[in-house]
Specification:
The complex is a heterodimer of chains A (about 325) and B (about 120).
Chain A lengths: L1 H23 L2 H4 L1 H27 L9 H15 L3 H44 L3 E3 L4 E4 L6 E4 L5 E5 H6 L2 H16 L2 H14 L4 H25 L2 H15 L10 H11 L7 H31 L10
Parallel strand pairs in A: 2-4
Antiparallel strand pairs in A: 1-2, 3-4
Chain B lengths: L2 H18 L3 E2 H8 L7 H14 L2 E6 L2 E6 L3 H13 L10 E2 L6 H12 L9
Antiparallel strand pairs in B: 1-3, 2-3
The chains are: A mainly alpha (about 325), B alpha+beta (about 120).
């Protein structure tokens, strides 16, 4: 019971305060890859805490054993002990049902996010096939359109798509930046990273931490691609390309929506690259490791304590 | 004839019909295509029939053959497919990854000014 309570408290604290702290963190912009890993660790931590809370409620004392067969046998014994009393049986059943529900929901939502994205991309590709022409020099598809746009269609056969206006509005260096940015997305399979975050959010839309995770991961992925593009080009050129494209994206007179992260990206590129120093990086990675491991430790702590104290191995029938 | 080749032919046929901006029958399209490649009448017929089934072409019976026209002008078609891409609201799972979203005009001015005088490393906040 203590393990369950500890895990639930941990999940609540991490989900609220932890997510809040991470959102405020300035360091993520300096090393966006690390920021993404931190958000993924947070999500993982929340998920495992919830699942382990359910499991520790269903099976109050976990046997610690190096022997897998023995472990499974003692789990089965413990479970049957639980079911010996109606109270215990109800609690166990509900807890296990919830665990299964959570797992199924996550699996379903993530898979659905991926499949929907995939069919959306196929539709785009097919629709473009009739009007876009391949520009071999740029290595991208170009489609005639009066406003600026540049995007990539991720997937196994990724494509970069530019509008004719974009090609006309940017100079060669700026175009190179745009292409490098999009190709970084394709190479890194950032679509999968987003699908995971989007899936988790879709599975539990009432959890703010997951909503933040999805927004932050998307934002940070743009910075990862920016860094990749600026690496072989020049930060200012990329920033200028961003501005030119944003200018040309909205035909005069129409509303512009959003753009907070675009502004942040330009400001970030206007200043020299400033990644986290080694010490901060090590500290952050340690934090990530702690996030990942804490739920497991909290779940195992009671059992570990018992085993280490040298009592009879719990649950083994004598 | 694999899917990709079919797709390429569809693009070529649409290209012709859009360029001509009038109705045409299979034979006219075939003769034009044959200037650049070897292709059979039945192939062109199949391609144009597919395009009709998908809604890209309309057709009218003229004697014993159909005359096909583009269902909508090229610009309209392109605008329509790009509309979905450019409207930021309809993509929760990030089907596509855009280079940049829109930036409000006021911010654009400020950002352009910032780029004229980029901050040096010493003056970073």
């Amino acid at each position: 019971m203590t393990a369950t309570l500890a895990l639930v408290s941990y999940a609540l604290v991490t989900g609220t305060m932890g997510a809040h702290l991470l959102r405020q963190a300035r360091w993520a912009d300096r090393s966006p890859r690390l920021g993404i890993v931190a958000w993924q660790a947070l999500t993982w931590s929340l998920l495992t805490a919830v699942i382990l809370a359910g499991l520790t409620l269903a099976i109050p004392v976990w046997p610690v054993s190096a022997d897998l067969a023995g472990l499974l046998r003692s789990c089965a014994t413990l479970l049957s002990n639980q079911y010996a009393t109606t109270g215990g049986a109800t609690v166990s059943t509900v807890a296990l049902a919830l665990v299964v529900l959570v797992l199924v929901r996550v699996g379903h939502a993530v898979l659905r996010a991926m499949l929907e994205a995939r069919s959306g991309r196929r539709r785009q590709r097919n629709a473009l096939a009739l009007v876009a022409r391949r520009d071999d020099r740029l290595g991208a598809l170009v489609v005639e359109h009066p406003s600026c746009a540049a995007y990539c269609i991720p997937g196994g056969r990724g494509e970069v798509v530019l509008t004719s206006t974009t090609v006309a509005s940017l100079d060669a260096d700026q175009l190179a930046c745009v292409l490098a940015h999009e190709r970084a997305h394709l190479r890194g399979r950032h679509d999968l990273v987003i699908a995971l975050a989007a899936g988790m959010h879709a599975a539990f839309p009432f959890v703010p931490a997951l909503r933040y995770a999805k927004a932050e991961v998307s934002r940070l992925l743009e910075m990862v691609a920016d860094d990749a593009a600026a690496g072989s080009n020049d930060r200012i050129t990329l920033a200028t390309a961003l501005i030119r494209l944003a200018e040309g994206a909205v035909p005069a007179g129409t509303l512009g929506a959003g753009g907070d992260s675009a502004v942040a990206r330009v400001r970030r590129l206007a200043a020299p690259s400033n990644p986290l120093g080694r010490i901060r990086m090590v500290l952050t990675l340690s934090g990530v490791a702690v996030l990942a491991v804490t739920p497991v430790l909290l779940a195992a702590a009671p059992a570990l304590a018992v085993s280490l104290a040298g009592y009879c191995p719990v649950g083994f029938p004598t | 004839m694999n899917v990709r080749q079919m797709g390429q032919l569809e693009a070529v046929v649409m290209d012709r019909l859009w360029a001509w901006d009038r109705a045409a029958n299979v034979r006219e399209v075939l003769e034009d295509l044959q200037r650049d490649r070897t292709i059979a009448y039945t192939t062109v017929m199949t391609v144009m029939d597919n395009l009709y089934q998908k809604g890209f072409l309309t057709r009218e019976l003229d004697g014993r053959a159909y005359r096909y026209s583009a269902a909508e002008p090229r610009e309209q078609y392109t605008a329509r497919i790009m509309e979905e891409v450019l409207s930021s609201s309809s993509d929760p799972g990030a089907t596509l990854l855009h280079f940049v979203e829109r930036i409000p005009a006021t911010e654009l001015r400020r950002l352009k000014a910032a780029l004229q005088h980029p901050p040096s490393k010493g003056s970073l906040r």
